[in-house]
Write a structure and sequence with these properties.
0% strand; 80% helix; 174 residues; single chain
Length: 174
């Protein structure tokens, strides 16, 4: 003697289910492509920032290693082991090459995606003169200047405009 569903209850349940299916289909057909496009635009728009951040991180690792009395190669390999998957890509490639016995300069030459060429050249000069301490502040300044230049560039304006437009389209569609 439990509750019984009447004909209207069954019809209402079917209508709710139909609405759910239509909403899900709408999300798949319209919303997911917009989100995918926004993700691609975001990925490309932030590429220079992420590249500069990788370079900044490598300089931090080298400086921390030097402060701890370690050679830069040792500091990089240890950081790669400790951070594991957090440092996928070029940083891990450099660490692997260092573990294979390459010098830091050779490893950086064989992994051009990790650092801007100017920073690689500066580090190699520091290695040659056996004084990375003199090079690190100048390398950081170059990174800072590159970031400031990128932020003031038309590329940054265009990509932020596109990303903002996509976000507005997404909000309007919802």
């Amino acid at each position: 003697n439990g509750p019984h569903l009447g004909r209207n209850d069954v019809v209402n349940t079917a209508e709710h289910f139909e609405f759910f299916v239509v909403a899900l289909a709408w999300a798949v057909v319209f919303l997911l492509p917009v989100l995918a496009l926004a993700a691609v635009v975001y990925r490309f728009a932030t590429l220079p920032f992420r590249s500069l951040e990788k370079a900044r991180f490598l300089l931090d690792v080298i400086e921390t290693g030097l402060n701890d009395g370690k050679r830069p190669e040792q500091a990089i390999v240890e950081a790669a082991r400790q951070r594991g998957r957090d440092l996928e890509g070029p940083f891990q490639e450099v660490a692997a090459r260092l573990e294979q016995g390459l010098t830091l300069g050779e490893a950086l030459d064989r992994t051009p995606r990790l650092l801007p060429p100017q920073i690689t050249a500066m580090l190699k000069v520091g290695i040659e003169i056996n004084d990375l301490w003199k090079i690190l502040p100048a390398a950081r300044k170059v990174l800072h200047d590159d970031l400031a230049e990128f932020r003031s560039s038309q590329y940054f304006d265009i990509t932020t405009t596109i990303a903002t437009s996509l976000a507005l389209v997404l909000v309007v569609q919802v």
